[in-house]
């Protein structure tokens, strides 16, 4: 047998190589860690957690994530779906008090073709919005300009959610 046709090479090429759960899902890995800037989790509940988006669209861009690893909303229990909405409400209230946004985008991207960057683990986006937050840097320069460093945002939100 030729060395290029070994079964492990085909598994690698076909994407069938084994991964640990932590490598496969950043949300599952973050949920197992103690809350800190390393995992960006700012609030936990029984079935969900709120985490800062590591690559935010806007300052204080949050994600509401269920602990259960599912790709679509219909696979969640009613309790978890309701808790996601309760946490989204808490996130909006908290962001309003800390950042005074003029509006919000809330939603799910189900599937990679719908824009989900992490399609295998459902999560809800909570994005505070301000007039003029989409400008030439975003549209022409393909660069986001955030007025606050992620570490400072984490500290502010963690304190607000947990005090």
Any chance you could write out the topology, listing elements then pairs?
Layout: H1 7-13, H2 21-24, H3 26-32, E1 41-44, E2 48-52, E3 62-66, H4 78-99, E4 103-108, E5 124-129, H5 136-139, H6 150-162
Helix pairs in contact: 4-6
Model description:
This protein is an alpha+beta fold and 163 residues long. It has one domain: HIT-like (HIT family, subunit A, 2-Layer Sandwich). It is 35% helix and 16% strand. Strands 1-2-3-5-4 form a five-stranded antiparallel beta sheet, sandwiched between helices. Strand 1 (41-44) and strand 2 (48-52) form a beta hairpin. It is globular and about 35 Å long. The model is unreliable at 1-22 (pLDDT under 50).
What key phrases describe this protein's structure?
single chain, 163 residues, HIT family, subunit A, 5 strands, disordered N terminus
Short description:
With 163 residues, the chain is α+β, with helices and mostly antiparallel strands.
Structural class: alpha+beta
Helix content: 25-40%
Got a strand count?
Answer: 5
User: What is the annotated CATH architecture?
Assistant: 2-Layer Sandwich
Name the beta content range: 15-25%
Question: What is the fourth-level CATH superfamily?
Answer: HIT-like
How confident is the prediction overall: mean pLDDT? 84
Largest sheet: 5 strands, antiparallel
CATH topology: HIT family, subunit A
Note the run of SSEs as H and E.
HHHEEEHEEHH
Oligomer: single chain
- Report the C-alpha radius of gyration, rounded: 18 Å
Shape: globular
- Give me the side-by-side strand order of the main sheet: 1-2-3-5-4
